[in-house]
Amino acid sequence: MSANSKQQIIEAAGIVFERYGFKKTTMDDIAYAAGKGKSSLYYYFKNKEEVFEAVVAHEARQLVAEINKAIDASNSAVNKLRSYVNIRMKRFVQRGNLATALNDNFLATFAFIEKIQNNYRDFEVEMIAGIINEGIEKREFKPVDANFTAEAILTCMIGFEVPLLTKTKTTEESVKKINNVIDMFFYGICT
Amino acid sequence: MSANSKQQIIEAAGIVFERYGFKKTTMDDIAYAAGKGKSSLYYYFKNKEEVFEAVVAHEARQLVAEINKAIDASNSAVNKLRSYVNIRMKRFVQRGNLATALNDNFLATFAFIEKIQNNYRDFEVEMIAGIINEGIEKREFKPVDANFTAEAILTCMIGFEVPLLTKTKTTEESVKKINNVIDMFFYGICT
DNA sequence: GTACATTTGGAACAAAATCGTCGAATAAAG
DNA sequence: CTTTATTCGACGATTTTGTTCCAAATGTAC
Q1: Candidate ranges A20-34, A101-115, A175-189; pick with highest mean pLDDT
Q2: B138-145: long-range contacts at Cβ-Cβ below 8 A with a sequence spacing of 24 or more?
Q3: Is the pLDDT of residue B4 over 60?
Q4: Is the CB of residue B120 less than 8 Å away from at least one CB of chain A?
Q5: Is A47 within 7 A of strand C by CB distance?
Q6: Which pLDDT does position B33 carry in this prediction?
């Protein structure tokens, strides 16, 4: 099982999925983009959905790396949280196969995406909670329940993703809106 | 035959074609986007290709209007020619169903597109020739054969479209390149 | 070299998608 | 009401697509 070939396929699939979405992308498309025969894909993946999941997982890893970098670059907890939200939203719209995956039945697709995302929810909560805890230590935030607050913020953010999935709105508009909400969180949290 | 419904379909089809290209777009996609039943499309169009042709024709008309506007706004013949080239290239990449129509067999698609475009070639030659003639009258250009020169410029421009069709390059890069060539034309033409 | 595991792709096939047609339903017009 | 324009659901024929199977090719260790 060459990790090289597998990665190659994942990256090729990422490009094609992003262009055409999940439904319209055929295994032939992926194979052609990866420079392999169609049946070779089945040596590395069980089916189309598994390829898609691998792509999403790969992009999620990239996203995490990017977020970590931005977080490290910020000094205050407030800025860390802000960077986190901004990057996450931007990514979700731009490079997101998650977003372009919608084609036919919206609810079915959304459930499909949600299932994949759920694996990362815990991770995200942990990350946000970490930032909040740091903010509490630094006296930037009130001593709230970090996990509970993190859950709330994340849920709120997911709420903002839904209109991004349905209507192809501008990122800016949504970022502006969500920043307002984040501000609300801050003014309720900050000492 | 409601011109309204037909136009509605054409515009919806334009959006879908632009997103997915000719091959990946189904009649269902178009119908859904236009808010009609699939079979209703066949009341207005013979088949998928005819819908596509109507879309391209529609966009061509828009392009012509845009070009005419820009040409009228320019004073010198040199600037008119430059505006013309810039708009044409930009359009070709951005809103061009012509460009996104490529999916599988490149040559077949190209032939398909070429066939449609040929109807407009004469028109374009005439337009360029008009600009050149004006330039000659105003002593901006040498008294060259306007039609022949127009043919040359157009052919040259089509040559620049090919890499735009194959590789998804930036517009800027191509515009820069073609502007260089246009400059070459100028320095060979200008008095 | 042989023996073995890894990797690839051609052929085949069932299931799904898709195009375009037909006829009936509905709306508009006269 | 009669006629005409328009829409849509259902259907058959054909093509596409997802997936499997198997043999060929390639690499690897002895």
Answers
A1: A20-34
A2: B138/B76, B138/B77, B139/B191, B140/B76, B140/B77, B140/B78, B140/B190, B140/B191, B141/B77, B141/B189, B141/B190, B141/B191, B142/B189, B142/B190, B142/B191, B144/B189
A3: yes
A4: no
A5: no
A6: 92
Identify, with chain letter, the residue nearest to nucleotide D7 (CA–C1').
B40
CATH T-level fold of A56-189: Tetracycline Repressor; domain 2 (1.10.357)
Q: Is any atom of nucleic acid chain D found less than 7 Å from the CB of residue A114?
A: no
Q: Is A47's CB less than 7 Å from nucleic acid strand D?
A: yes
pLDDT of residue B102: 41
Give me the residue spans of the domains in chain B. Answer: 54-189
- Contact of A24 with chain B, judged by CB distance below 8 Å, is answered with yes
pLDDT surpassing 60 at residue A11: yes
Tens-place pLDDT, residues A97-108: 555 544 334 445
From the CA of B134, how many Å to the nearest CA of chain A? Answer: 44
* Rounded distance in angstroms from the CA atom of residue B9 to the C1' atom of nucleotide C29: 24
Which of A15, A18, A20 best probes binding to B when mutated, by most B CB atoms within 10 angstroms?
Answer: A20
- Distance between CA A150 and CA A32 in Å, rounded? 43
Instruction: Give the HSE-up count for residue B173: Cα atoms under 13 Å, Cβ half-sphere.
Output: 7
Tens of pLDDT, residue by residue over A34-93, are 999 999 999 999 999 899 888 888 888 888 888 899 999 999 998 998 888 888 777 766
CATH number of B54-189: 1.10.357.10
pLDDT value for A104: 39
User: Is residue A4's beta carbon less than 7 angstroms from any atom in nucleic acid strand D?
Assistant: no
Average pLDDT over residues B130-154: 88
